[in-house]
Structures are given as C-alpha cells and as structure tokens.
Amino acid sequence: MAKKQRTEGQARADFISLCCIIALFLAALLIFINNVLPLIGVNISGGLINALNLIKDIALLLGIAFGAWRFVRNRGKLWRILYIVAIVLYVASAICGLF
C-alpha cells in the first residue's frame, strides 16, 4: 500500500490547528492559575508563568494570523494595512507584557 501524501494546505491547516489547541490549553491553565488558585489561598507567579504566557500569546497569534490572512489577502489594501498594524500591536503587547 502506498503512503498517503499530505498537501501543503493540509500541513498548514494541521499547524494552525496545533497552534490553536496549544493556545487553548495554556489559556485554560493560566486562567486557572491566575484566577482560581488565589481564591483558595495559593499564589503562583514567576518566570515560568511569564514564559507560559508568552508561549500562549505566540501560539494564539499564529493560530489567528493565518486564518485572518486568508480573509485579508483578497481584500483591498486597507485591509492588509490594518492586518499588519494589528499583528505588530499584538506582538508588541505580548513582548511588553513580560516586563
């Protein structure tokens, strides 16, 4: 039997899905750590939490950016400019959120 071959589109869709699921898992974990644990008297913070926040933000960016680009690429120049501005603002806020 021959192996099934994946197309580039399928590989991209799998990558986007992976980024989205990573963002979902980390967001759920971080919401629990930041909002639920302090209610029972446990406070967890530090470099590991900051690193997980950055990974979540990057995974979320990748998951959203590719889907949004599919929408924007066939639109006008204004849509592409707004897309780039939004991506730059997101990256800047994700990086500055660490400090």
Strand content: under 5%
Order of helices and strands: HHH
**Measured distance between first and last alpha carbons:** 54 Å
Mean pLDDT value: 82
* Rg computed from alpha carbons, rounded to a whole number of angstroms: 18 Å
Major sheet: none
Question: Helix segment count?
Answer: 3
- Taking pLDDT < 50 over at least 5 consecutive residues as the criterion, the unreliable ranges are none
Structural class: mainly alpha
- Helix content range of the residues, please? over 70%
Count all strands and give the number.
Answer: 0
**Shape, per Cα inertia axes:** flat
What are the key terms here?
99 residues, mainly alpha, flat
SSE layout:
Blueprint: H1 8-36, H2 47-72, H3 77-96
Helix pairs in contact: 1-2, 2-3
State the gist of this model.
The chain is an all-alpha fold and 99 residues long. Helix content is 76%, strand content 0%.
Protein architecture, described:
With 99 residues, the chain is mainly alpha-helical. It has three helices and no strands. The chain is flat.
